[in-house]
């Protein structure tokens, strides 16, 4: 009874429409969309322009662009076989050196270091990741170049039977042999780039390791695991996504590095698989070396090389993104 | 019958562990010296270190195995490896930085380094003539121009990505993420081909600033987007539920909450942009003279000056190059400290001063409400 009277007494509630708020709000939306569109336009323009310019050279060279080692764009004989291989070799050496170091550092910071030291180290690693690449290049150019010769000779003497560690044109038994065959090599450039990317990789790995759940850590200890046992069974599996993602992000940085590489290598335009030997090359160093003297065709060829590099880093970066977002550590941090 | 329980030592580091490690280290160094100087003649400090480390691990494993079982030997070996890898990386990185600072010190101690350019300084002049003023001015102007372009655009774009829903923002986010992979030299090549060759501008500081902007913008948008998405949804919903419009919510809730994070994103992006050499190499040209007009004529920046100077065979010119590199490093360090100062706090966390201000405000509110209550009754 009472309910019906109440219903009768109250006017029936109408579904309210949320009015779009006033002019300021509309202007706000418009400004946001405009900024988004402007950034999108700019980025698409960069991409479209690069691909458009590169297409000229690609039409000229055809499939030979991938297989030719020389770089003589004005006579139509050019390709990225040598420079792309060089880029991958340098990045490979860099990752091979940087990943173990970065993993050790990340594990130390997240598992072993006492509290105060941990905070200092985290700050220091982030700072190192912000140090300009020219500083690393300078160190490699002015210091490392002279120091590595001994190690390079030792490696090539004793491990020369591994194909890519061989150095042609050197005789370890000849004490007067020139040491220049060991300088300006892929190996030295790789060490410098490794120093550059190690902090980047390390800080991503540390982030992933430190998110390993405390319950599972304590569970491992309660089952009698040693600290290493706990790390191997909890921290490393949990942080695997972060490890792979960080490594790939570091690889992306290593592939695109210019100045540190350019300062060290002496460019050659053949595929140089002997990483300890003088002579190396990379796509970015090629662009820095040749942009000034380039005519329209040569410039377009450089663009094509740049686009090839861009596509490679793009694949690596997106791969990293997918790995990180699919891993358990990524899922945990999203919540 | 019960024995009184003996207090157990729970320290993770035992005295004998230290002795074991020390013994293994001494034995390893002696063994390596033996190999190096008598058995097989090698040279080079790096090789010595590598061999000494390998033999240290082997000897340490043997010593541990004498008084332990499998898991504990593996635990201690892993701990030794991790500690030494961490120490190696740390020493190497710190060495890179101090090497540049120390070598650059000889140029930086002369006050004329900060007041003169290199116009009058030939390759054989001593360090008391000439300096890096032109490069410092160039760096500051170029990064200033680049920031004037990127900061407004990136922050608004990041707000767009974080606040708007639907297909369009998602597409923009994908494209921006793709562009973070753009190698900096390709960004430089793009500006070189468009602004310099097609539009016919000079090599100038402005072109360099454009190249830095193209490189820096995706990085900054992405970092700011991550920070903005960390703002708790409950805060935004509370603001909207109180009747605030979207724009008031953004201005009074989202931006203040993420202020320190946004500042960190901007500063770290600046640090990336300021040290980038390759886009500047293609677009700024090179000059030895001070040029305060970024829109005309070549203008050099600190990383570019470093790159050009250290290739010289003359020791004084190389010393100048180290000087500019050290200056650049100090600038980055300054930016980084600034970022630590303003950032590093998560959304909604307050400094002591802000907390005091809030307390004062709140006690004023209490007093006001009480006054009102008395007035009504």
Which features characterize this protein?
heterodimer; A: 335 residues; mainly alpha; MetI-like fold; 14 helices; 72% helix; disordered C terminus; B: 377 residues; 2 domains; 0% strand; flat
Care to give the gist of this entry?
The complex is a heterodimer of chains A (335) and B (377). With 335 residues, chain A is an all-alpha fold.
Structure characterization notes:
The complex is a heterodimer of chains A (335) and B (377). With 335 residues, chain A is mainly alpha-helical. Chain A has a single domain, classed as MetI-like (MetI-like fold). Chain A has helices at residues 2-9, 23-61, 64-67, 81-112, 115-130, 133-158, 186-210, 214-222, 227-238, 240-256, 259-264, 283-290, 296-326, 328-334, and strands at residues 71-72, 77-78. In chain A, strands 1-2 form a two-stranded antiparallel sheet. In chain A, helix 7 (186-210) packs antiparallel against helix 10 and helix 8 (214-222) packs antiparallel against helix 9 (227-238). The longest helix of chain A has 39 residues, at 23-61. The model of chain A is unreliable at 329-335 (pLDDT under 50). With 377 residues, chain B is an all-alpha fold. In chain B, 73% of the residues lie in helices and 0% in strands. Chain B has 14 helices and no strands. Chain B has helices at residues 15-39, 45-66, 70-108, 133-163, 167-179, 184-198, 205-229, 233-241, 246-257, 259-274, 278-283, 302-310, 315-342, 352-376. In chain B, helix 3 (70-108) packs across helix 13 (315-342). Chain B is flat. The mean pLDDT of chain B is 85. The interface between A and B is large, with 93 and 97 residues.
């Amino acid at each position: 009874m009472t309910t019906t009277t109440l219903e009768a007494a109250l006017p029936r509630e109408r579904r309210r429409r949320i009015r779009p708020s006033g002019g300021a709000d509309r202007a706000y939306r418009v400004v946001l969309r405009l900024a988004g569109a402007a950034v999108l336009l700019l980025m698409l323009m960069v991409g479209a322009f690069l691909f458009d310019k590169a297409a000229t050279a690609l039409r000229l060279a055809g499939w030979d662009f991938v297989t030719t080692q020389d770089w003589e764009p004005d006579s139509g004989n050019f390709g990225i076989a040598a420079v792309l291989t060089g880029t991958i070799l340098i990045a490979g050496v860099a990752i091979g050196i940087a990943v173990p170091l970065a993993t050790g550092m990340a594990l130390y910071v997240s598992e072993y270091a006492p509290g105060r030291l941990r905070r200092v180290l985290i700050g220091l690693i982030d700072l190192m990741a912000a140090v300009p690449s020219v500083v690393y290049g300078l160190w490699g150019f002015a210091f490392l170049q002279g120091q590595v010769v001994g190690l390079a000779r030792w490696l090539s003497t004793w491990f020369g039977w591994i194909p890519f560690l061989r150095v042609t044109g050197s005789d370890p038994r000849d004490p007067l042999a020139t040491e220049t065959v060991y300088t300006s090599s892929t190996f030295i450039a790789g060490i410098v780039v490794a120093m550059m990317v190690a902090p980047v990789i390390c800080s991503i790995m540390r982030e992933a390791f430190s998110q390993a759940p405390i319950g599972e850590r304590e569970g491992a200890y309660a089952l009698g695991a040693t600290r290493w046992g706990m790390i191997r069974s909890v921290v490393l599996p949990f942080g695997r996504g972060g490890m792979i993602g960080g490594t790939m992000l570091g690889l992306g940085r290593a592939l695109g590095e210019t100045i540190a590489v350019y300062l060290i290598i002496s460019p050659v335009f053949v595929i140089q698989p002997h990483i300890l030997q003088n002579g190396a090359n990379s796509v970015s160093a090629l662009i820095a070396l040749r942009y000034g003297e380039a005519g329209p065709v040569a410039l377009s060829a450089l663009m094509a090389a740049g686009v090839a590099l861009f596509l490679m880093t793009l694949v690596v970066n997106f791969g990293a993104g997918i790995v990180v977002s699919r891993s358990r550590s990524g899922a945990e941090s999203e919540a | 019958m019960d024995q009184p329980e003996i207090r157990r030592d729970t320290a993770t580091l035992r005295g004998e562990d230290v002795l074991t490690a020390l013994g293994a280290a001494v034995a390893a160094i002696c063994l390596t010296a033996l190999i190096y100087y008598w058995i097989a003649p090698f040279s080079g400090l790096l090789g010595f270190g590598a061999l000494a480390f390998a033999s240290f691990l082997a000897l340490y494993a043997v010593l541990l195995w004498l008084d332990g079982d499998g898991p504990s030997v593996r635990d201690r070996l892993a701990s030794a490896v991790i500690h030494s890898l961490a120490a190696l990386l740390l020493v190497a990185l710190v060495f890179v930085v101090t090497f540049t600072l120390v070598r650059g010190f000889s140029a930086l101690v002369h006050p004329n380094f900060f007041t003169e350019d290199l116009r009058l300084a030939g390759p054989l002049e001593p360090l008391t003539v000439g300096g890096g003023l032109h490069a410092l001015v160039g760096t500051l102007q170029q990064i200033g121009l680049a920031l004037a372009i990127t900061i407004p655009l990136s922050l608004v774009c990041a707000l767009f990505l974080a606040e708007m829903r639907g297909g369009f923002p998602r597409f923009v986010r994908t494209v921006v993420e793709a562009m973070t992979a753009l190698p900096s030299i390709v960004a430089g090549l793009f500006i070189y081909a468009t602004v310099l060759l097609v539009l016919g501008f000079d090599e100038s500081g402005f072109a360099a600033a454009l190249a830095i902007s193209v490189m820096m913008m995706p990085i900054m948008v992405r970092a700011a987007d991550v920070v903005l998405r960390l703002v708790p949804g409950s805060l935004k919903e509370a603001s909207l539920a109180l009747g605030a419009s979207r724009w008031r919510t953004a201005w009074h809730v989202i931006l203040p909450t993420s202020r320190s994070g946004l500042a960190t994103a901007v500063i770290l992006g600046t640090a990336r942009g300021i040290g980038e050499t390759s886009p500047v190499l293609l677009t700024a040209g090179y000059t030895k003279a001070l040029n305060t007009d970024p829109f005309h004529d070549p203008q050099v920046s600190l990383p570019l000056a470093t790159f050009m100077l250290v290739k010289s065979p003359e020791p004084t010119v190389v010393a100048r190059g180290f000087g500019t590199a050290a200056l650049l490093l100090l600038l980055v360090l300054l930016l980084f400290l600034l970022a630590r100062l303003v950032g590093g706090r998560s959304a909604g966390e307050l400094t002591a001063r802000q907390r005091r201000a809030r307390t004062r405000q709140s006690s004023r509110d209490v007093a006001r409400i009480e006054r009102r209550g008395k007035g009504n009754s």
